[in-house]
Amino acid sequence: MIRQFELVEKVREYDPNVDEERINRAYVFAMQRHGSQTRASGDPYFLHPLEVASLLADMRLDSGSIVTALLHDTVEDTDATLEDISRLFGDDIARLVDGVTKLTKLELQSDRTKQAENFRKLVVAMSEDIRVLLVKLADRLHNLRTLKYVKSEKSRRRTASETLEIYAPLAERIGVQTWRDELVDLAFAEIHPEARDGINTRLEYLRSNGKELVSQVISELKRILSDYGVEAEVTGREKAAHSIWLKMQRKDAPFEALTDIMAFRISVPEIADCYQALGAIHASFPVLPGRFKDFISTPKPNGYQSIHTAVIGPEQMRIEVQIRTTEMHQVAEYGVAAHWRYKQGGEGHDGRQYSWIRGLLDILDQAGGPEEFLEHTKLEMYQDQVFCFTPKGDLISLPNGATIIDFAYAVHSEVGDKCVGAKVNGRMAPVRTRLKNGDQVDILTARNHTPSPEWERFVVTGRARASIRRMIRLEQRDQFIALGREIVRRVLTSAGRTFSERELGPALDRFNLDDVEDLYSNLGEGLHTEGELAAVFLPAKPEFDVDEAALARAKPIASPAAANSARPKALTLKGLIPGMAVHYARCCHPLPGDRIVGIVTTGKGVAIHMSECSTLEAFGHTPERWLDVDWNDGSELENHTGRVRVILANEPGSLGAMSNTIGKHKGNISHLRFVNRAADFFELMVDIEVESLDHLANIIAALRTDSLITSIEREGA
């Protein structure tokens, strides 16, 4: 445990003007308030804020951040108030503590809603001061370091999943790579311990057997750079276990097939030296096509700058090389904290300087609620970037796979709403066109155009999706208002009253609404019925009979949620006769997440196939039998069968190890068949009950980390 004077000295090393007195007061205040509280590990609770403060001191942050770290849990977990913090430490610290605290006073219905609402608050707070995010990340990192002491497995897994989904991407976005790597590794260890252990075992083997080879590569790179007159430091680094796991899933490849498990970094003094070093490497080794990226001329949104290239290096070894200056390396490791400056009344701690935070605030304005905001924000944070240009040369960074519509909304929400097409590199292109690095995009708009609901199916940015949904909601509301107005007119006319909005006061009171348009919208959406409205104006014995035929016509008016609940649980089938039998084709075993089609078979109903299934060729001459089908959100609530082909080492316990891994990842073996037996291996066909394509992909990736499994591939895909 770091002691009080050690913390102050740690800060003094990089900040001679440290506010020692305020840090000491915060230390004593937090220790007294937390008192005898303990953590799940049994340690005094005060150790937690102290460790958070130490983490921030490692990042060389200002005194205000250190004080906030010491106090960040006092309002949530003790009897201290924000007024106490403001009075004793100033309004600035009180605002930071309020931004970091996890306590919410809202009555929320679910853990997910609570998570989403807390994250929304975090984004609002960090947009005002990025230090809120830095303290929060340090808080989360120390909680992950002590997660093993939490008894509830459900709580541990929820914390780990939340870390991977939210906090690790946030750490990456502000460039704090060291924290991001540790957050990911600790969360990965909780969610997929067997996969992590398996990958680390293989990495350890590579380390012990390839140490000499790595040294040879470093020596050769140094020699080449020296021959070209480049002064450089060369180091080797190992890819993290979680990154290897993701790449195995993304490329559907075994561990042995990955070529960039080891990467080599070249650090040079100046930017010009980066390109000279690049020339030396490319002149000396064959270049792997498609693997060159220049993040110096086009930095990532978090400020990351480096040149990435891949070559067939010494000993015919495929290697990834990163070239950057020493200053760029500091930013790559510590992000915003690498060049952190705080000046009284000056610039530096306004998170709005980061365009991605402005993007999150735009999503916050557009989203329909906390959970929708969380969904769109995760889309915004996760994916790799492509860099495109406006006709004027302005740079727009977008996630990989972004379309013209995503680009249009990145320019401005009104441009996105009115987009009808674009010229990409001078040629006309449809709105669903995916953009590539370096594309120049000229958006074409029409004055009266509105977004199509179909756009939501192919856009990839949270900002675009939130804006599209907002416009759809507004259009639906206009339709609901028009329908609701007719319902009100009909009820008032039947009651012998003149239609007037002044007559609707009792109805607003009855339904607890403030606005007449809200009443119309609720009636049109089916949240209130015509009969309920009639009862407002005739609370006693009715003096007239409501038209039963009109009521019958009003019943189908239902909310979208109600309409969705009436659909089949597993499938949304367009053009299907109600009651027709549905089954999944055993030739390809489609799973939620696959692209699918339906084939009508006389006497058997509809067979659901993957779009790539080879069996579909037999139905090419009968297009009238094809149905357009898709999965709905409920499809992952039931189990589906995925089939895999496994080549397994013929060793004692290998079959049991495979079964155990499948079971630990919530899969269930429903059928197993030996296809081939040999002295050294078995070849099996295994049917596994899973929830979705992603679920099966996780199981396959976990099995690939087992050295007893030579090969595993999905059948029918």
Q: What class, by secondary structure content?
A: alpha+beta
Principal-axes geometry comes out as: globular
Number of strands: 20
The biggest beta sheet reads: 5 strands, mixed
Strands of the widest sheet, in order across it, are 1-2-5-4-3
The termini sit apart by 54 Å
Q: Give the strand content.
A: 15-25%
Q: Helix coverage percent of residues?
A: 40-55%
Radius of gyration: 30 Å
Integer average pLDDT: 76
DSSP summary: helix tally: 27
Name the descriptors.
single chain; 717 residues; alpha+beta; four-stranded mixed beta sheet; 27 helices
Structure commentary:
The model is unreliable at 102-110, 338-354, 370-383 and 541-571 (pLDDT under 50). The two termini are 54 Å apart. The strands form 6 sheets. A 5-stranded mixed sheet has the order 1-2-5-4-3. Strands 12-14-13-15 form a 4-stranded mixed sheet, with no helix packed on it. The protein is an alpha+beta fold. The chain is built from 27 helices and 20 strands. It is 47% helix and 16% strand.
Layout: helices, strands, pairs:
Elements: H1 4-12, H2 20-34, H3 47-58, H4 63-71, H5 74-77, H6 82-89, H7 91-100, H8 111-128, H9 131-145, H10 153-173, H11 177-191, H12 193-227, E1 233-238, H13 241-250, E2 262-268, H14 271-284, E3 293-294, E4 307-312, E5 318-325, H15 326-334, H16 355-366, H17 370-382, E6 385-389, E7 395-399, H18 404-411, H19 413-417, E8 419-424, E9 427-429, E10 441-445, H20 462-494, H21 505-510, H22 516-525, H23 530-537, H24 548-554, H25 560-565, E11 571-573, E12 582-584, E13 596-601, E14 605-610, E15 626-627, E16 629-631, E17 640-649, H26 654-664, E18 668-677, E19 681-690, H27 693-704, E20 709-714
Parallel strand pairs: 2-5, 12-14
Antiparallel strand pairs: 1-2, 3-4, 4-5, 6-7, 8-9, 8-10, 11-16, 13-14, 13-15, 17-19, 17-20, 18-19
